[in-house]
């Protein structure tokens, strides 16, 4: 969740990186640095491209095309998806993707290997909004068609592209924290170890698709309460339709789209249309990593997802691995609003960030159930990433080394950043996102 008001937040709340972190991100985004660090590709979701998909402050803006629009009965108001042309990848790179599609098609249908041809129509940003102005998520989508057969138009979300900084922050903070408790992340990436991930809140589905594409050993469960949001992600944002459990609507996409485009990735994704509180009570899985990004059309993070005495928090604690289990939460609020008196005394702040006055309570609730909580500020946006994990696993040793808990935890997390970058082939540096505004919640 990111709101259109983010870039005009007062007191510098449209987040800026610290000078050192900003330099790290800028260097990593440059073509020369990408070659020097042997990054597999440039970051197509870099913030420098945000003008291609940001639109206007109060709506999609000129040049946008509405490709989905439907009213939600789950508190999200009008759910819409707008499309914007994307400049990357350039058209000269399209033939390589067309050849890949034809090779995939030939393996599925050997008898028609010479007859079917694929042509790319283009790449677009697809932006989901609630009530026309609150940006819920952004994804890059490839549109292509098969020259023979019926229903030959395909949409494929690009799983390697994370366009929104808060998702990069969540990924960076969560994936660098997990191995601090002796979890073998490279083994899960290569498929040698099983991994269970839970995503609460779906949006366009860019986070679970990214994780499924990077971790061959991962099975990923997604919980989304709103079937309209799920329909929008499939019909307009290129999310694999066969991953969804319990959606009865008939898709206009080709029946073989998932097998052709996803090559088995979709078989490890399970999207449940359910209330998160009910799901976590009845779920039998134990998760290594949990991501929570759940907001309604009023930009509110439901209280039951952070009430320390509530059913959800008590059951979440039981469903997360007792040693290395890590929970990552997106808080759409400027951290400055958590200071006493700021949010309650300023109606403008309150109208922009309903969660502002509750940030400290959310942090305390997760610390009570998991032991250790830290936050990182998201660059360029009014978002905070909260990470909760087991304190005995990650903070032991600070006193022996004569370090403060804050410096010890930060050093331990940052020490894993290069390993995560290399193991997953990330086009963006974890380190800059984790250390930006790092705060240990005491």
From TrEMBL:
Keywords: Methyltransferase, Transferase. GO terms for molecular function: methyltransferase activity. It comes from the Eukaryota. SUPFAM superfamilies: S-adenosyl-L-methionine-dependent methyltransferases. One of its GO terms (biological process) is methylation. InterPro entries: Lys/N-term_MeTrsfase_sf, SAM-dependent_MTases_sf. Coiled coil: none annotated. Belongs to the methyltransferase superfamily. PANTHER family: OS04G0510700 PROTEIN, SAM-DEPENDENT METHYLTRANSFERASE SUPERFAMILY PROTEIN. This is Uncharacterized protein. It comes from Digitaria exilis.
């Amino acid at each position: 969740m990111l709101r259109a008001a983010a870039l005009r937040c007062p007191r510098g709340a449209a987040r800026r990186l610290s000078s050192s972190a900003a330099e790290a991100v800028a260097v990593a985004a440059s073509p020369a640095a990408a070659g020097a660090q042997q990054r597999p590709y440039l970051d197509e979701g870099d913030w420098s491209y945000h003008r291609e998909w940001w639109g206007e402050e109060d709506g999609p803006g000129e040049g946008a095309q509405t490709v989905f629009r439907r009213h939600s009965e789950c508190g999200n108001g009008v759910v819409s998806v707008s499309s914007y042309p994307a400049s990357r990848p350039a058209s000269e790179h399209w033939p390589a993707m067309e050849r890949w599609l034809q090779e995939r098609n030939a393996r599925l249908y050997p008898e028609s290997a010479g007859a079917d041809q694929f042509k790319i129509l283009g790449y677009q940003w697809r932006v989901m909004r609630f009530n026309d102005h609150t940006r819920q998520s952004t994804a890059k989508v490839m549109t292509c068609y098969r020259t023979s057969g019926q229903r030959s138009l395909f949409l494929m979300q690009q799983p390697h592209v994370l366009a929104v900084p808060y998702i990069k922050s969540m990924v960076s903070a969560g994936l660098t924290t997990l191995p601090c408790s002796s979890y073998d992340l490279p083994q899960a990436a290569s498929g040698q170890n099983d991994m269970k991930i839970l995503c609460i809140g779906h949006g366009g589905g860019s986070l679970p698709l990214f994780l499924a594409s990077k971790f061959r050993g991962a099975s990923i469960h997604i919980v989304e309460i709103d079937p309209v949001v799920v329909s929008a992600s499939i019909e307009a944002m290129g999310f694999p339709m066969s991953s969804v459990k319990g959606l009865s609507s008939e898709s206009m996409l080709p029946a073989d789209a998932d097998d052709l485009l996803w090559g088995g990735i979709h078989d490890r994704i399970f999207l449940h249309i359910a209330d998160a509180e009910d799901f976590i009570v009845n779920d039998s899985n134990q998760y290594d990593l949990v991501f929570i990004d759940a907001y309604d059309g009023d930009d509110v993070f439901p209280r039951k997802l952070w009430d320390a005495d509530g059913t959800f928090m008590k059951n979440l604690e039981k469903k997360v691995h007792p040693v290395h289990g890590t929970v990552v939460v997106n808080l759409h609020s400027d951290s400055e609003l958590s200071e006493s008196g700021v949010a309650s005394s300023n109606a403008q702040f309150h109208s922009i960030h309903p969660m502002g006055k509750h940030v400290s309570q959310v942090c305390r609730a997760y610390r009570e159930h998991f032991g250790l909580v830290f936050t990182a500020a998201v660059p360029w946006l009014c978002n905070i990433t909260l990470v909760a994990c087991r304190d005995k696993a990650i903070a032991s040793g600070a006193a022996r080394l004569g370090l403060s808990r804050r410096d010890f935890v930060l050093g331990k997390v940052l020490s894993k950043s290069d390993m995560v970058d290399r193991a997953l082939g990330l086009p963006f540096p974890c380190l800059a996102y984790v250390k930006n505004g790092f705060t240990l919640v005491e």
